[in-house]
Amino acid sequence: MVPTTPSPTHLEDELVDEFLWLEDIHGERPKEWVQEQNQRTETLLDGPELASMTERVLGVMDNPSRIAAVTKHGPHYYNFWRDAQHPRGLWRRTTWESWLSDSPDWDVLLDVDELARTENVDWVFSGARLLRPRYTDGQWQRALVRLSPDGGDAVRTREFDLGTQEFVAGGFDVPTAKSSVSWVDADTLFVATDTGPGSMTESSYPRQVRRVSRGQSITDAPVIFEVPVDHAQAAVYKDHTPGFERVVAMDLVEFFTVRTYLWSEEQWVELDLDPTVSVDLHNQWLLIRPRHTLELNGIEYPAGCLLAADVQAFLNGDRSVQSVFTPDEHSSLEGWSWTRDHLILNTLHDVSSALYSTVPGEWELTALPGIPPLHSASAWAVDDEDAKVGNDYFFSVTGFLTPSSLGRGSLPDLSGPDADGAADSTARKASEPAVLKRAPSFFEAQGLEVTQHFAVSADGTRVPYFQVGPRELELDGLNPTLLSGYGGFEVSRTPGYSGATGITWLTREDQRGRTGVYVIANIRGGGEYGPSWHTAALKQNRHRAYEDFAAVAKDLHRRGVCTARKLACAGGSNGGLLVGNMMTTYPDLFGAISCGVPLLDMRRYTKLSAGASWIAEYGDPDVPEQWNYIRTFSPYHLLSAATCYPPTLIWTATSDDRVGPVQARKMAARMLDQGHDNVWFHEATDGGHAGASDNRQAAALHARSHEFMWRMLENLKGR
Questions:
Q1: Region Disordered: which residues (predicted)?
Q2: pLDDT tens-digit profile of 451-510?
Q3: Burial code of 358-369, b = ≥16 C-beta within 10 A, e = fewer?
Q4: Which fold would CATH assign to domain 8-58+466-517+558-715?
Q5: What are the φ/ψ torsions at residue 270 (nearest 5 degrees)?
Q6: Are 457 and 548 in contact (CB under 8 A)?
Q7: CA dihedral defined by 569, 570, 576, 579, rounded to 10 degrees?
Q8: Is the pLDDT of residue 293 over 50?
Q9: Residue 425 above 80 pLDDT?
């Protein structure tokens, strides 16, 4: 179902926005409105039941038996950890032998809670980038630590001494902004940040990259790379791989359009490929993954395949490539990782994971074992430059009813020194992967099962979806069911364990003693079947994602899992746009909706926060021909006082600097103004696009959303 094309008069009416005043994010009047709406929503939902549920979810998120995933740098394994005693978190490290134990001995590098108290800033840890030891006498001594003051994308980047475990006095310090900062050497950085007028793109990201020397002001540093203001972002980094050092620049024209340049003979040399192609430079290899059919040397290669070429030969004009992976109608490539002598591929087959390894140059795929059906798995190199463990890899496995596990294996050593004697290797030669850590179970899964089904969309496309619920499910339409989806930016929704969802939905009982059913729809716009699955729902074809989601809802009705009054749907960000369209275009299919950090005003989305960077996904509303189709999936403009909408919770965060809070505000305000008193709004003050800066906030957000939907399905008597 697609809304009809409006008349010119209606188009003029759509340009009238009576709630523009809510776009003043920190204005006093909007803040008062937000406080009033927060109080109204809290009055509805807050109480002993929600408080108890929040504490149970927080217990999952803070549980000390969670797996402490690590990344290896030199002899140490690094981890970031939050728990009840450290809600802002600890950045820490340990040795391999200690990590294997039940109680690792952690060396705490940075206590973010203590830093926040000392500096009186609610810092949120956003990652760290370590400097290679060859620049500091063979020791891992320095890092660039990224800290957000409110959980948003804008961060402050500060130089940190791993030895003294303190920030370097007078060291590198890039002020809070949306920025990209990386090491060149011990005394030089590549910095892309806000340096004043003209330095940022219309998408709110840096358009200039500077080479900054120690002690030099960023504004005094020379600009080494620059992109037009209407492009999305500029970035430069140095590949520090010994023997393959190079400087790479990227002009992110649009979200999936990137021009890649190499610095050669004092100038930038563009990699001569279609800019919609994804590229990876590793040692002597160039990997190419096309988003559309690609022709090289008169041969056509399908979208979503993976090709390999010699970097230098390619730069010299040789377009010979070797095929590494070729998708079919059931399979897609999710990602890859390099060990010293191998390439590991993470793939999907009908949205279930399959892992492979291959030897560069030979490219024959060998399956990695241990992946059960209807599960997600990934594998990645431990440290491809380590002489002892360069072919070791980590792997993780998870499923809807299977808590995550983390293991390690080793692929055959084909070059370099013998791996014998490696203190932290789980294998000296090739080995079967071994599971080393398992996360605890947080809900009773006995009696539950995972099944996969296929709905038929409006154009005949088969759309897969996962269903999690009782094994002996009564198909009488009375089961409280939650349908989740995303359908954008080639993001795949794959199986994964959520103790929180297990508590708040799968094992919760309604008045009939029924427990919840949880469903994930793998709609077009996502990446479940590769780039073609994504591009099928771009711009003027956006309605296909919504038709797919509606088809899954109808299939749940048809199969007797639930009726409309027993079906809720939830989504965030682009998924918020998805469920916003469910509310406005398919209101009769649902009994409750939770719409988080959403895009909703597609007329002004390019003017708000990072919206301009998503034109390739949705289209440009400033182009009349494109607005003519964009307005058919702009929920803010599809609202009608005459339509009966399902109960809806719209939630966001003041500090969200990616989508921003104003679209959610205006949507709720217009609905209330039209007389829809079954819409509620809630806005957190910090937390950024995630809506939460610590586990307590995340637990409260999850519990509030699920409590709202459950309560609405429980109380809705009919439509």
A1: 411-431
A2: 999 999 999 999 999 999 999 999 999 999 999 999 999 999 999 999 999 999 999 999
A3: bebeeeebeebe
A4: Rossmann fold (3.40.50)
A5: -75, 140
A6: yes
A7: 0
A8: yes
A9: no
The confidence score (pLDDT) of residue 715 equals 86
Which tokens sit at 234? Answer: 């500029």
Instruction: Supply the pLDDT for residue 8.
Output: 42
pTM attached to this predicted model: 0.94
Are 605 and 621 in contact by the 8 Å Cβ rule? The answer is yes
Active-site hit among 76, 689, 702, 706: 689
Structure-block tokens of residue 472? 């002996």
Q: How confident is the model at residue 5 (pLDDT cuts 50, 70, 90)?
A: very low
Per-domain residue ranges of the chain = 8-58+466-517+558-715, 328-438
For residue 240, what are the CA distances in angstroms to 135, 237, 247, 458?
10, 9, 9, 50
179 flagged as catalytic: no
Mean pLDDT across the stretch 612-618? 97
Nearest to 595 by CA among 454, 712, 468, 674: 712
Q: In the structure, what pLDDT confidence band is assigned to residue 308 with cuts at 50, 70 and 90?
A: very high
Residue 157: Cβ-neighbour burial (10 angstroms; 0-12, 13-18, 19+): buried
| Cβ(554)–Cβ(455) below 8 Å | yes
For the beta carbon of residue 27, count every other beta carbon within 10 angstroms: 12
pLDDT at 13: 54
Q: Give CA–CA dist 199/672, Å, rounded.
A: 40
Structure tokens at 59: 């217990």
**Catalytic residue (choose from 337, 484, 573, 609):** 573
How many Å apart are CA 532 and CA 484, to the nearest integer?
A: 22
- At 428, is the pLDDT very low, low, confident or very high (cuts 50, 70, 90)? very low
The Cα-based distances of 644 to 571, 583, 664, 665, 676 in angstroms read 20, 9, 19, 20, 8
Token digits of residue 667: 């949507």
pLDDT tens column, 521-540: 999 999 999 999 999 999 99
Q: Tell me the HSE value of 132 on the side-chain side, using a 13 A CA sphere.
A: 16
SS3 576: helix
CA distance 701 to 682: 10
pLDDT of 7 over the 90 cut = no
Contacts of 288-295 with CB under 8 Å at 24 or more apart are 288/321, 289/333, 290/531, 291/256, 291/531, 291/534, 291/535, 292/531, 292/535
What is the crossing angle of helices 48-61 and 695-715, to 10°? 140
What does DSSP assign to residue 97? H
Position 112: which residue type? V
- Between the alpha carbon of residue 183 and those of residues 110, 156, 666, the distances in Å are 20, 15, 42
DSSP state letter for 200: B
Res 689: pLDDT: 81
Is 76 a catalytic site residue?
no
Percent helix, strand and coil across the chain, each to the nearest 5: 25, 35, 45
30 three-state secondary structure: helix
List CB contacts of 269: < 8 A, sequence separation 6 or more: 261, 262, 263, 315
